Amino acid sequence: MLIDSVGEQGAMLLQMPRPGLAKRPATYEDLLKVPDHFVAEILEGELYATPRPAMPHAVAASALGSELGGPFQQGRGGPGGWWILDEPEIHLGSDVIVPDLAGWRRSRVPQVPAVAAMTIPPDWVCEILSPSTEALDRVPKLNAYARERVAHVWFLNPRSQTLEVLRLEEARWTVVATHDGDASVTVEPFDAVPLDLYRLWGRDAPAP
Fold first, then answer.
1. How far apart are CA 92 and CA 120, in angstroms?
2. Domain 54-200 is in which class?
3. pLDDT tens-digit series, residues 132-152
């Protein structure tokens, strides 16, 4: 395996080798050979594997899923109408992508199908950035999301404690908002309920 980059706390993005002399696009069979302790993805014909993230990444993902799941999936204190899933495997054309979180409007997907991987493009995706995977999130993944008309992408960065909100407009990404710190903000497409950013960084509410 080839180590593309090494980030903080030993996080690595690995481009996995494939057998054979001739270069060929990666297949799902190649992906299945990746050890279970890696998150494996196929992007633009290349196979990548990422170890499980460091704790700030995990805290941010868990907190965001909890914050959105109550009001937008369960309808507790919010409008409902969404499925919010952690690390779903999504097949988009020849790409196999595992975003940190993804959401589907129930108007498009009334029930989550009983399958191992979703083939319906999500309406929203959140990628939690790390030094080793940011380029992958911002280029091939973002290209795939645009191609499949994913309406919103969030980039959440626990290191800089920032949230970047992108909206797809005429096949191009527009940065509609950037938030940081401990603010309570309204963020599309979940702007019906404020989001407390301090929870995503693993902190208690700031003093009044």
1. 8
2. alpha beta
3. 889 999 999 999 999 999 999
Residues pairing with 161 in the sheet: none
State the DSSP code for 118. Answer: B
The pair phi, psi for residue 193, each rounded to 5°, is -135, 130
Residues in Cβ contact with 88 at an 8 Å cutoff, skipping those fewer than 6 apart: 98, 99, 102, 117, 118, 122
Give the residue extent of every domain in the chain.
54-200
One-letter identity of residue 121:
P
Q: Give the pLDDT confidence of 74-111 residue by residue, as tens digits.
A: 999 999 999 999 999 999 999 999 999 999 999 999 99
d(C-alpha 57, C-alpha 134), whole Å: 13
62 backbone dihedrals φ, ψ, rounded to 5°: -65, -45
Q: What is the CA radius of gyration of the chain?
A: 17
